Amino acid sequence: MKAIVLRKNGGPGVLQTQEVKKPRPGKGEVGVSVRFAGINYAEILSRKGIYGWAPKKPYIPGMECSGVIEETGEGVCRSRVGERVMVGAKYGCYAEYVVVPDNNAVPVIDGFGYEEAASFLVNYMTAWVALFKMARVGRGEKVLITAAAGGVGTAAIQLAAHAGCEVYGMAGSPQKLELIKSLGAAGAFNYRDPDCFKNLVAATGGVDAVIEMVGGDVFKKSMVSLNTFGRVVVTGFASLDLNKWSPSSWLRTWRDIPRADIGELARKSISVMSSHLGYLLDSEPGKMSQLYDELRGFVLEHGIRPVVNRVFDLEEARLAHEYIESRQSSGKVLLKIGR
Ligand SMILES: NC(=O)c1ccc[n+]([C@@H]2O[C@H](COP(=O)([O-])OP(=O)(O)OC[C@H]3O[C@@H](n4cnc5c(N)ncnc54)[C@H](OP(=O)(O)O)[C@@H]3O)[C@@H](O)[C@H]2O)c1
């Protein structure tokens, strides 16, 4: 089968398509013929060699995809063959075929096409956990989402708006601000504007929760924009650019990585939290499957659909990574793989 195999870390050019042996499902596993793979920012960090949850090289990257179950392993009901599924995985989805544990392949949500199905699991589960399990946002609360036009960001805007929150988004271009507002945000701000946070506080009087995915100054200013009892959930830090071979980048990373001082938190009675979907799936598979059922019900009730931005062919994975890294993307970027 055709797959991208990550043999060494580096720039987007290391993503080369190769012929590799098609895997077969073992006990408790299913084999899925892939239609679309969703690209996640974590795969860019893994490609660079700076992502803690990445497997050991060589491996096929790709944490999610949509497709059809072609084969089941021992102990898995044969009736699953032919089922349209959404797959969540640690790796393996930039390929024509992937083998995962039975539980990692869930039926495609009613009404979703294969593109939407490959855009759902990572972004919406991450946003659901951050909003409702960590920040525990409620109806009428003011919620700020940073990197709001991205994959997780667009999911978070939709979920928070449908939950009755007053949602604000931040992103890096006028087109992205328009997208954020079209998804239900009450306001959108460009963090390339030095007055961005001043304008946010002037418009809102301060926010009750922030889902923060940028790091550096954006994290620091998010803390300042919080109301009493406010919560920041650090879900990522896309602006950090750690290069293992450049000591000056170690210094910048040390400076920009989000951290909090207990004294400062106490003065305003605010909190900083963090969550990571991968570690949660490793440690709490039962709870995560319960959370998935809640999320699925909410999405069906509110008719929420993922924002698909652009589709590249598998052979163009390099271009797809470049597109996201250059901050041109909004919503989800996919690789088209199957028929
Ligand atoms: N904790 C978890 O479990 C979890 C799960 C999934 C993702 N994440 C994290 O959540 C964040 C968003 O992930 P995603 O997959 O949805 O990606 P994405 O938001 O679609 O793409 C990343 C976005 O980050 C923003 N950004 C800000 N500064 C940047 C910089 N210096 N270089 C590149 N991009 C920059 C860009 O938007 P603007 O140009 O609008 O700023 C860019 O579009 C990432 O930090 C990711 O690691 C965490």
Short description:
With 339 residues, this protein is α/β, with parallel strands linked by helices. It has helices at residues 41-48, 114-117, 121-134, 151-162, 174-182, 196-204, 216-224, 247-256, 262-268, 277-283, 285-302, 317-325; strands at 2-4, 17-19, 29-38, 64-72, 84-88, 97-101, 105-107, 142-145, 166-171, 187-190, 207-212, 226-234, 271-274, 308-313, 332-336.
Name some characteristics of this structure.
single chain, 339 residues, alpha/beta, Quinone Oxidoreductase, Chain A, domain 1, Rossmann fold, 2 domains, 7-stranded mixed beta sheet, 6-stranded parallel beta sheet, binds NADP nicotinamide-adenine-dinucleotide phosphate
Structural summary, described in words:
- By secondary structure, the protein is an alpha/beta fold.
- It has two domains: 2-120 and 306-336, Quinone Oxidoreductase, Chain A, domain 1 (Alpha-Beta Complex), CATH 3.90.180.10; 123-277, NAD(P)-binding Rossmann-like Domain (Rossmann fold, 3-Layer(aba) Sandwich), CATH 3.40.50.720.
- The chain is built from twelve helices and 15 strands.
- It has helices spanning 41-48, 114-117, 121-134, 151-162, 174-182, 196-204, 216-224, 247-256, 262-268, 277-283, 285-302, 317-325; strands at residues 2-4, 17-19, 29-38, 64-72, 84-88, 97-101, 105-107, 142-145, 166-171, 187-190, 207-212, 226-234, 271-274, 308-313, 332-336.
- The strands form three sheets. Strands 3, 4, 5, 6, 7, 14 and 15 form a seven-stranded mixed sheet that branches.
- The two termini are 13 Å apart.
- The chain binds NADP nicotinamide-adenine-dinucleotide phosphate (NAP).
